[in-house]
Amino acid sequence: MAILLDVRVPHALGGAAARRLIDARMSDIEAALPPFVRDARGEWHDDVFAFGMTAFREQISGTISILETGIRVEATLPALAAPFERTIADAIRVHLETLISPRKPA
């Protein structure tokens, strides 16, 4: 049975600013994918990024929704990911928090 993952990260950026930030940092998101992820793809539909990928020959699909006060990631994971559900959710949460936080000058 598939696992439904739902991760929410609050922000105070406003919806439009959060969308611009996530869109600008999409390459950071792609770079953070583990090496066993293949065929990552996605596209924006208004403020929702629909994505799909393959990991260990299993399909993963979901959305990243940009809300006025938060970002929500919903994904359908294969059953074999059940033991790692919390680890995956925590990694997504930490990565999103990092993406939406202000970058420090180098």
Describe it for me?
The protein is an alpha+beta fold. The protein has one domain: START domain (Alpha-D-Glucose-1,6-Bisphosphate, Chain A, domain 4), CATH 3.30.530. Strands 1-5-4-3-2 form a 5-stranded antiparallel β-sheet. Strand 3 and strand 4 form a beta hairpin. It starts with a strand and ends in a 6-residue tail after the last helix. The model has no long low-confidence stretch (mean pLDDT 88). This is Polyhydroxyalkanoic acid synthase. InterPro entries: PHA_gran_rgn. It comes from Chelatococcus reniformis. Pfam families: PHA_gran_rgn (PF09650).
Q: What is the structure about, briefly put?
A:
The chain is α+β, with helices and mostly antiparallel strands. It has three helices and five strands, in the order βααββββα.
Q: How would you describe the shape?
A: globular
CATH fold node name:
Alpha-D-Glucose-1,6-Bisphosphate, Chain A, domain 4
Per CATH, which architecture?
A: 2-Layer Sandwich
How much helicity do the residues have? Answer: 25-40%
What's the number of extended β-strand segments? 5
Pick out the low-confidence regions.
none
Strands side by side in the biggest sheet: 1-5-4-3-2
Number of domains: 1
